[in-house]
């Protein structure tokens, strides 16, 4: 006999008495649970839960179905809630022994009628018995005005030998509120051999005046039985609810099988329609996976849901991926289309699903799905979806999906951007197939053009070629600017035996535009671990801006890397040329080139030329790419690429691009790239400045090579000439290296009509090792020609030696000479300073000569000052040798100051420069024992010679003062006078130091001779060591002598130095 049905649960009891503190009645009780079904024969259905009474209590839970050995009873329905916002009682669960019936359905949520009240949630569907299916979730209740609709109940889980999970309940509607969310579909994990399906997700509730509810996720469907040939189908995602703003569609359910049948991911729900806001986004398609290696079945990813229509369109969902461990096909899901924007922008298209082949014996191709199109719009078209990726461990090809084109913005809106191409990867080292990545989608046309999508990356662990995706072209801008081109895809080879070349894709072209052309896309990178070459993709040229717009910038070249100890070459991509326009676009930068090869070469890309400015400024040239050698035994030279030439302009020429840096960790030289010439400004505009030279670096303890900074670029021609670029710096980084650092020389100033550019500054040389550092020379100032002043010479570059054990000498760069001019000669550049605080001080650079004035009443330029000499280092303590001991060595000599240049001639001469200060002599150290005398400090460096006074019809120019130092520098020679009543100028005084310098000589003249300069004061002697006699002082310098025939007295000699202090007993 069958068991009887369980009794209905009783109503909830009355509420308790009100609290005297609160003064409110207590809530009524929840409804009682339904009685369990009887056990015998077929189990009875569980009783319905009692309803809640008064207030907002929940309904009682449904009773559990009766147990049976034949057919188990279904769970009872949940009780209705007692008031607004309460939940329905959960459905009773079916019996769970031996055989099973279906789970009971969840009770419906309470429909609220009061304003602002929430609808009750639907009850959860009961789980199916062993052979039963899951029960359906109850629908959510409708909300009162302004409330939230109840959520749909989740579908019940299927039994292990059932066929489907329960469907989720639908969300409740909500006038002027938020619609309830749809319940998720129930899942199924099957041990059987039949087809199985996950439950469908419930739809989101509609919300007039509010936000529609989210659709429920489709249930998962998995077959666990490896002998099953059945199909696993993921549940469909619920639709998003409609409303003022649309709800999101639910995702499709995942599907998987361990058997030989198909796996089909669930289709996603569409986004809800919007009346005043944004349409809902579509859900993502479900994943499909097959794991069995012997399976030949197909895995189908679920399709993404479409975006909802609205004033602004919703985005489409992504397609589901498809994966197999077998040898069958994979078909990923397509993305959902973007929703239409009826007043605003269209929604973006969804991405295509990825394709994955995980069986190393599979010959099938893995093909990613293409991206979906964006929606139409009034203010702008939607972006195209990205292409899906493709991966294979087999021997077939991997093909990435193409990015979708951006949707047109029409006559009123902005064009959408193109989607990116999908990546393509082969992980099988034995594969000779070619991965082909997806191309970037073109940008949509519109008032402003959309940008093109980037090309996908292509990678192979095998021996085949790689084909990265091209960058998409920018869209046309009908009233504004054209879209930028997409970046080309990168190419990667990860097999040491591969002999094919890795070549990055070129960037996409920019779109044409009314106010400006789009920028060219960058080239893709290239990297190989094999023995082939690597070539970065070229940057695309910037698009013309036409007669009124700005030219687009050129794209940057891609970088190139060879990661194999081979003779392969890395070629950096070339920077794109800037587009012409009213204002020219800038050129793109060249790509870097790097190798770890023993005999490999590096050729970085050159910078692109700046575009011509037809009414305005020319574009700047792009910088050259850097060169890197990272093999410590390599002997090849690293040379940075040259910068791109500045574009011609009307108001001014563009600046030249900078030279690329050079890095050498091997044994070869490093040379920075040269800066490029500045663009011409013509008869109306200033010439562009020359680019700076690239820096050079050597970092290897065994290197005896030379690091040379690049040469600065020449300034461009114009109404006023552009300045010359600075020379590149040079640096030796390893403390044990004897390599040499040479700063690059500055570039010449540009020729001008009314004025010329100054010469560039010499590059700084810095040596942390044991070698020499020589600052770069400053460039000479350019002649001003028949009308303009002469240009100033560039400063000499500084030189630094920063190693206490170095015996090398640092030399500052020579300042450039001033250029000649009609009325004014250019000033000479200052000599480079030296910083060498160890051992022997270095020599400061000589100042440049002033430029002559060639006009009838012109002024010659001032001479440049000499650079400062470096200081000598202190003595180093040495221990005793034997019983007699030894003295400690003296400190190093101070470096010499640089000489000053000669002033320029003219009706009025320029000033003589000041000689550079000599470095301080190093300190001596005391002897090591009472019988050992202390050692005097070495002399300071000789001061630089002061510049000569200029000749004149009046008083001769005063000679420059000699620099301070151990030996004072000679004073500058007094200028000759040509008027008998005017004496020659006094020679400069010698500097003070160890011994006084000689006074300046008075030259022969038609009138009186000048007076010789006064000798410098003698320096003091060194202090004696303990117990020893002090050292005597050094005598003063000789006074300046008079010259015949007139003869004058010589200068006064300096006084002797003070003797050293007496020692101990």
From TrEMBL:
Compositional bias, Gly residues, is annotated for 1-18, 26-66, 73-86, 234-286, 301-355, 438-456, 469-489, 582-591, 605-625, 819-832, 841-876, 891-925, 1010-1065
In this chain, the stretch annotated as Disordered covers 1-67, 72-91, 161-185, 232-359, 437-490, 582-631, 819-930, 1001-1065
Q: Where is the composition biased (Low complexity)?
A: 287-300, 592-604
> Would you tell me the protein name for this molecule?
PE family protein
Per the UniProt record, the source organism is Mycobacterium intermedium
Classification lineage = Bacteria, Bacillati, Actinomycetota, Actinomycetes, Mycobacteriales
């Amino acid at each position: 006999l069958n068991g009887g049905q369980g009794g209905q649960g009783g109503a909830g009891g009355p509420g308790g008495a009100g609290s005297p503190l609160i003064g409110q009645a207590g809530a009524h009780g929840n409804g009682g649970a339904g009685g369990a079904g009887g056990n015998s024969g077929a189990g009875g259905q569980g009783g319905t839960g009692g309803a809640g009474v008064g207030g907002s209590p929940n309904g009682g839970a449904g009773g559990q179905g009766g147990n049976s050995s034949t057919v188990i009873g279904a769970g009872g329905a949940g009780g209705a809630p007692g008031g607004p916002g309460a939940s329905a009682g959960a459905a009773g669960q079916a019996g769970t022994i031996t055989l099973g019936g279906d789970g009971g359905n969840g009770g419906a949520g309470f429909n609220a009628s009061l304003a602002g009240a929430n609808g009750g949630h639907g009850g959860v569907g009961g789980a199916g018995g062993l052979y039963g299916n899951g029960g359906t979730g109850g629908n959510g209740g409708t909300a009162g005005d302004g409330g939230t609709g109840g959520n749909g109940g989740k579908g019940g889980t299927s039994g292990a030998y059932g066929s489907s999970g329960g469907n989720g309940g639908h969300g409740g509607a909500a006038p002027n509120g938020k619609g309830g969310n749809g319940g998720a579909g129930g899942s199924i994990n099957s041990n059987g051999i039949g087809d199985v399906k996950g439950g469908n997700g419930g739809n989101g509730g509609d919300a007039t005046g509010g936000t529609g509810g989210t659709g429920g996720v489709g249930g998962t469907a998995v077959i666990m039985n490896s002998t099953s040939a059945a199909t696993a189908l993921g549940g469909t995602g619920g639709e998003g609810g409609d409303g003022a703003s649309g709800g999101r569609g639910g995702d499709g359910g995942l599907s998987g099988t361990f058997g030989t049948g198909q796996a089909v991911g669930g289709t996603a729900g569409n986004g809800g329609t919007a009346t005043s806001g944004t349409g809902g986004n579509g859900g993502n398609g479900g994943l499909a996976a097959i794991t069995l290696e012997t399976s030949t079945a197909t895995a189908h990813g679920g399709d993404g849901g479409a975006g909802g229509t609205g004033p602004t369109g919703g985005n489409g969902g992504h397609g589901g991926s498809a994966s197999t461990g077998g040898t069958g096909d994979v078909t990923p899901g397509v993305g959902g289309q973007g929703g239409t924007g009826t007043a605003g922008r269209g929604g973006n298209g969804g991405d295509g699903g990825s394709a994955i082949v995980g069986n190393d014996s599979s010959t099938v191709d893995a093909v990613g799905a293409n991206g979906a199109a964006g929606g139409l719009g009034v203010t702008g078209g939607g972006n195209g979806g990205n292409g899906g990726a493709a991966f294979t461990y087999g021997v077939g090809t991997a093909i990435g999906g193409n990015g979708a084109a951006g949707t047109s913005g029409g006559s009123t809106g902005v064009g959408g951007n193109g989607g990116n191409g999908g990546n393509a990867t082969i992980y099988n080292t034995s594969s000779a197939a070619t991965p082909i990545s997806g191309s970037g989608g073109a940008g949509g046309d519109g008032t402003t053009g959309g940008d093109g999508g980037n090309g996908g990356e292509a990678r192979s662990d095998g021996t085949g070629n790689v084909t990265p995706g091209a960058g998409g072209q920018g869209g046309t801008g009908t009233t504004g600017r054209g879209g930028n081109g997409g970046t080309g895809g990168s190419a990667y080879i990860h097999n040491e035996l591969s002999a094919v070349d890795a070549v990055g894709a070129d960037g996409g072209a920019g779109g044409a535009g009314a106010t400006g052309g789009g920028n060219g896309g960058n080239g893709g990178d290239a990297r190989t671990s094999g023995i082939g070459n690597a070539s970065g993709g070229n940057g695309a040229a910037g698009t013309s801006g036409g007669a009124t717009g700005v030219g687009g910038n050129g794209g940057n070249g891609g970088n190139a890397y060879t990661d194999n100890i081979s003779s392969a070459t890395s070629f950096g991509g070339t920077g794109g040329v800037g587009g012409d326009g009213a204002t020219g676009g800038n050129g793109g930068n060249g790509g870097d080139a790097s190798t770890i090869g023993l005999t490999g070469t590096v050729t970085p890309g050159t910078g692109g030329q700046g575009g011509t400015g037809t009414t305005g400024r020319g574009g700047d040239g792009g910088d050259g790419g850097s060169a890197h050698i990272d093999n410590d035994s390599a002997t090849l030279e690293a040379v940075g690429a040259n910068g791109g030439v500045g574009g011609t302009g009307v108001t001014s020429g563009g600046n030249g691009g900078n030279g690329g840096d050079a890095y050498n960790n091997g044994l070869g030289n490093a040379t920075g790239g040269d800066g490029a010439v500045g663009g011409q400004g013509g008869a109306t505009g200033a010439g562009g400045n020359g680019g700076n030279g690239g820096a050079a670096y050597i970092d290897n303890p065994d290197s005896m090579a030379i690091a040379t900074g690049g040469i600065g670029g020449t300034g461009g021609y114009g109404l006023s000439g552009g300045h010359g670029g600075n020379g590149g710096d040079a640096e030796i980084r390893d403390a044990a290296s004897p390599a040499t650092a040479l700063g690059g020389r500055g570039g010449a100033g540009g020729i001008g009509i009314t004025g010329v550019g100054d010469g560039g500054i010499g590059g700084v040389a810095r040596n942390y090792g044991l070698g020499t550092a020589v600052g770069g020379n400053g460039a000479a100032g350019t002649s001003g020609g028949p009308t303009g002043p002469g240009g100033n010479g560039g400063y000499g570059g500084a030189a630094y030696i920063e190693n206490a054990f170095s015996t090398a000498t640092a030399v500052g760069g020579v300042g450039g000479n001033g250029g000649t001019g009609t009325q004014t000669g250019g000033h000479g550049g200052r000599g480079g300073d030296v910083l060498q605080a160890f051992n022997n001080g270095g020599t400061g650079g000589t100042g440049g000569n002033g430029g002559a004035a060639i006009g009838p009443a012109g002024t010659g330029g001032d001479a440049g000052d000499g650079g400062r000499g470096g200081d000598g280092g202190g003595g180093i303590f040495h221990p005793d040798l034997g019983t007699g001991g030894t003295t400690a060595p003296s400190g190093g000599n101070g470096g010499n100051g640089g000489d000053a240049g000669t002033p320029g001639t003219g009706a009025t001469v320029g000033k003589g420069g000041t000689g550079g200060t000599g470095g301080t002599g190093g300190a001596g150290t005391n002897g090591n024992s009472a019988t050992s005398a202390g050692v005097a400090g070495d002399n300071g460096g000789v001061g630089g010679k002061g510049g000569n006074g200029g000749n004149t019809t009046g008083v001769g120019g005063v000679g420059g003062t000699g620099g301070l130092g151990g030996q004072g520098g000679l004073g500058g020679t007094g200028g000759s006078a040509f008027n008998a009543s005017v004496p020659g100028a006094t020679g400069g005084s010698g500097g003070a130091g160890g011994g006084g310098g000689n006074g300046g000589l008075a030259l022969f003249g038609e009138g009186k001779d000048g007076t010789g300069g006064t000798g410098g004061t003698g320096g003091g002697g060194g202090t004696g060591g303990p117990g020893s006699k002090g050292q005597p002082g050094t005598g003063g310098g000789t006074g300046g002598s008079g010259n015949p025939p007139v003869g004058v007295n010589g200068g006064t000699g300096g006084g002797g130095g003070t003797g050293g202090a007496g020692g101990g007993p």
